[in-house]
């Protein structure tokens, strides 16, 4: 079966993160942050968002170094909490909600692109049909550009990352070069730590965390990253620090050029003009023509973010399917392009449908939907991992402080998303739990596998007749009759192999599990059994289970086909 190629180096990993983080978000959400905190205090929101993102990024970095395969959260939850126990349930729930979260996040970019394009062509903003048609067209173009080999994707991603970073840098430079810094940092009224400020801080943090999302995208592509245990953690830290600097400079430039109160209406909400604050800054400093050019760059930046997101999102469903925990079709690789084309097309198609909803709906839902099963669950997974394991290639400094800061930040963002979004997010997870329990009952997964095992163990003691009169040791022998009871005995001078005291003819066949998708192990073994095979010959290939120096994988962390423990179970 074809495998993904490792073609993404540190530059490519940072590029993928950056193009996902620097989208249209900061260029349209700055007025929202200003409205939430009031003028210069908006800087507090951007800095706080960077701190929470960096702390959460360290959680991602440590988990990705311990489990460097593709899949991200799905892989971490499955392996930390047990692939055949609670981890299976959590991984199922994550994949369940991810098919809603990912399309909604992509759709928010499509919709934002169409909203900003209305600055150039006002007719787009006046026609629902034209607006939705443009949003869907951007989604289709993104899918087509990603439908190619990973190496080509990495090269294009690096180019788009340059455009994305340059766009924000140009707007920030234009503002800083003409800024009135007294105006930028003037509070107007003395600062007081009040309930109003805390409420505004929650609103600002919710927005800025949305703008920082994407710093972990390289972790979703572990199977395609060169030296992932080193590259992914470093890419996460570098991308967060670099983007945070750009965001803060951008905010200072905006405050220094445009009086912040002019961006808000009488009710304290952003004006229509504020939606195009990047173009506004350029127009006031360099003129109308450069403002039009920068607007085009903003649209390219928005597209670059969508490109990076869809690239990473398609790999999550792929990894789950390869592990037998999701629809098998999602685990297929294109025979020539060597990409997970079914997963890419499915996530992309769902995002086109989500693009027909409003921006407020998709952003609120994706935030409330992702916090519990990803942000909070990963922090708990790291705590469990720390308690169980020794050294990993990367460990966050000052643990558990960064993890606690990330937990607090995500909790504030969850509450800030509003009661409607929380109800939708929790409700969808509840539906997912029912779906998992239904599948678990049918396939005898955890927790029903435990119940079946307990019933099986209780049967000898509950049956009547001779079985009920067996001693405890005899019942134990009966239960384990096929374990550790084989021996060679002599019968009329000839050696005879026996199992459980009876002659046993070994009719075996080799089973090369490393060459077979994990989802096909059980069907293949049942087919052997149907042929009369009673013994499997397994080859434990050491270099297969040690994919990199210092990395040993016997539970499928880096590749589902290395799950030797699951095979033996």
Q: How are the SSEs placed, and which strands pair?
A:
Blueprint: H1 10-21, H2 25-37, H3 42-66, H4 73-80, H5 82-117, H6 122-126, H7 128-146, H8 150-177, H9 181-184, H10 195-212, H11 228-257, H12 277-285, H13 288-322, H14 341-354, H15 359-388, H16 401-416, H17 419-443, H18 448-462, H19 472-479, E1 486-491, E2 494-499, E3 502-503, E4 508-510, H20 521-530, E5 535-537, H21 542-545, H22 564-568
Parallel strand pairs: 4-5
Antiparallel strand pairs: 1-2, 2-3
Helix share, percent: 55-70%
- DSSP strand tally: 5
N- and C-termini, Cα separation: 24 Å
C-alpha geometry = elongated
* Percent of sequence in beta strands: under 5%
Could you tell me the radius of gyration in angstroms?
28 Å
Mean pLDDT, to the nearest integer, reads 81
Assembly state of the chains shown: single chain
């Amino acid at each position: 079966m074809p495998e993904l190629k490792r073609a993404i180096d540190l530059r490519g990993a940072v590029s993928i993160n950056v193009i996902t983080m620097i989208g249209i978000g900061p260029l349209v959400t700055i007025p929202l942050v200003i409205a939430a905190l009031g003028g210069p205090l908006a800087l507090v929101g951007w800095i706080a968002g960077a701190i929470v993102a960096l702390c959460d990024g360290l959680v991602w970095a440590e988990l990705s170094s311990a489990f460097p395969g593709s899949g991200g959260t799905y892989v971490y939850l499955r392996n930390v909490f047990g692939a055949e126990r609670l981890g299976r349930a959590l991984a199922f729930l994550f994949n369940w909600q991810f098919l809603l979260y990912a399309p909604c996040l992509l759709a928010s970019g499509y919709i934002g692109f169409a909203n900003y394009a209305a600055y150039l062509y006002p007719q787009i903003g006046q026609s629902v049909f034209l607006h939705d048609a443009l949003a869907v067209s951007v989604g289709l173009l993104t899918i087509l550009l990603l439908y190619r080999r990973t190496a080509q994707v990495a090269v294009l991603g690096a180019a788009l990352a340059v455009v994305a970073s340059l766009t924000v840098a140009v707007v920030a430079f234009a503002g800083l070069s003409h800024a009135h810094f007294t105006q930028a940092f003037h509070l107007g009224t003395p600062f007081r730590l009040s309930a109003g400020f805390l409420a505004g801080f929650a609103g600002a943090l919710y927005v800025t965390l949305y703008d920082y999302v994407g710093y972990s995208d390289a972790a979703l592509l572990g199977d395609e990253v060169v030296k992932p245990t080193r590259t992914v953690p470093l890419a996460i830290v570098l991308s967060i620090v670099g983007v945070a600097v750009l965001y803060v400079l951008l905010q200072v430039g905006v405050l220094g050029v445009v009086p912040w109160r002019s961006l808000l209406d009488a009710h304290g909400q952003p004006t229509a003009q504020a939606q195009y604050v990047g173009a506004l800054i350029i127009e006031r400093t360099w003129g109308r023509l450069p403002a039009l050019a920068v607007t085009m760059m903003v649209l390219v930046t928005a597209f670059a973010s969508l490109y990076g997101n869809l690239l990473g999102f398609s790999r999550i469903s792929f990894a789950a399917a390869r592990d037998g925990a999701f629809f098998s079709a999602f685990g297929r690789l294109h025979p020539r392009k060597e990409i997970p084309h079914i997963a890419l097309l499915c996530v992309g198609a769902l995002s086109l449908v989500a693009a027909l909803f409003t921006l407020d709906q998709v952003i609120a839902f994706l935030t409330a939907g992702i916090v519990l099963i990803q942000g909070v669950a990963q922090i708990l997974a790291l705590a469990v991992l720390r308690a169980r394991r020794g050294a990993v290639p990367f460990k966050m400094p000052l643990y558990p402080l960064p993890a606690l800061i990330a937990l607090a930040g995500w909790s504030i963002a969850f509450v800030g998303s509003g009661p409607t979004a929380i109800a939708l997010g929790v409700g969808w997870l509840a539906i997912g739990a029912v779906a998992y329990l239904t599948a678990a009952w049918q396939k005898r997964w955890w927790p029903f596998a435990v119940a079946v095992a307990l019933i099986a163990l209780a049967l000898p003691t509950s049956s009547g007749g001779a079985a009920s009169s067996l001693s405890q040791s005899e019942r134990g022998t009966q239960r384990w009759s096929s374990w550790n009871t084989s021996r060679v005995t002599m019968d009329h001078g000839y050696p005879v192999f026996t199992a459980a005291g009876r002659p046993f003819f070994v009719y075996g066949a080799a089973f090369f599990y490393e060459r077979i998708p994990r989802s096909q192990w059980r069907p293949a073994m049942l087919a052997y059994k149907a042929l009369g095979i009673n013994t499997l010959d397994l080859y434990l290939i050491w270099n297969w289970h040690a994919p990199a120096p210092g990395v040993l994988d016997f539970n499928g962390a880096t590749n589902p086909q290395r799950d030797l423990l699951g095979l033996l179970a």
